[in-house]
Amino acid sequence: MRFKQMVQQAAGLEDAVVAIASADDEEVMDAVSLAIENDLARFHLFGDATRIQKMIHDRQLSESQFVITHTATAQEAAERAAYAVRKGDADVLMKGLVPTATFMKAVLNKETGLRSGKVLSHVALFEVPGRETAIGLTDAAIHIAPTLEDKVHIIENGVTALRAVGYSLPKVAVLAAVEVVNPTMPATIDAALLTQMNRRGQIKDCLVDGPLALDNAVNLEAAKQKGLTGDVAGAADLLVVPQIEVGNVIYKSLMYFAQASVAAILVGAKAPVVLTSRADTAEAKLYSLAFALLNAQPTKKIKQTI
């Protein structure tokens, strides 16, 4: 899967709607403009109505693509946007110019938010120059020090997200510093247990292997040099990190050293959530929207083509 293909597939979804909390932000509206240009969705925008209308006018966008709801505060915008998705008026929730803590509080609100009873986790896809297919990374944003049980849910969420964009049987590498089980390194023990759970059918719809060091997970020659065999070693589609610091470093290294493009969403809620950063480009936000919309696809219909 390439990101341009992902955008094209998302454009085939019928009547997709995105709710944006605090949409009165230039970078967010640049992403909205790109999304409309690519025929991805219509938008329900929550925030300062006057500012939003000016941004729409400045970009010469058709007002028919939008519903605008004025809100006085970022908290109100987050709460009402999340509730719109909960009610089924929108398919995807997107963060605008609102503090992450405020946004996540609205997402997790029991009465008006998007809690589903599942564990929530972050899934990122990277398109790395020189690599034929995108590679996934989880969890670099939500779980600080996930337990074994958390990692089961993190893998399940990641597999669901990748299958929605065309990976029929994702190859999942559970990362550690080494590729052998070491009783003094808990990450290696968890990785071995997760691998065995997959082999016994407790984790489905994917192939899991670990512990694998990063080089052995993504480079076939490195895997061969260590004598590692199997379908995952050297060919991973999804990297599962042992803790948030590892995920954060890999995430930012891919972006700033490898100039990778990224698409990232939260999975496990009642609907996909686009948790954007101020540092994300409009293009990155577009890719994240496409990723999210394809993960909302079970509730949508594909447009008929002639």
Which secondary structure elements does this structure contain, and how are they paired or packed?
Layout: H1 3-11, E1 17-21, H2 26-37, E2 42-47, H3 49-58, E3 66-70, H4 74-87, E4 92-95, H5 100-107, E5 121-127, E6 135-138, H6 148-163, E7 171-175, H7 186-199, E8 207-212, H8 214-218, H9 220-225, E9 238-240, H10 244-256, E10 261-267, E11 273-274, H11 282-295
Helix pairs in contact: 1-11, 2-11, 4-5
End-to-end Cα distance? 24 Å
Helix tally equals 11
**Number of extended strands:** 11
Shape: elongated
Give the helix level as a range of percent.
25-40%
* Percent of sequence in beta strands: 15-25%
Order of helices and strands: HEHEHEHEHEEHEHEHHEHEEH
Nearest-angstrom radius of gyration?
20 Å
Which parts are unreliable, with pLDDT below 50 for 5 consecutive residues or more?
302-306
Oligomer: single chain
Describe the structure.
By secondary structure, this protein is of the alpha/beta class. It is built from eleven helices and eleven strands. It has a six-stranded mixed beta sheet, with helices on both faces. Strands 3-2-1-4-11 form a five-stranded parallel beta sheet, sandwiched between helices. α3 (about 50-60) links the parallel β2 (about 40-45) and β3. α1 crosses α11 (about 280-295). The longest helix has 16 residues, at about 150-165. The two termini are about 25 Å apart.
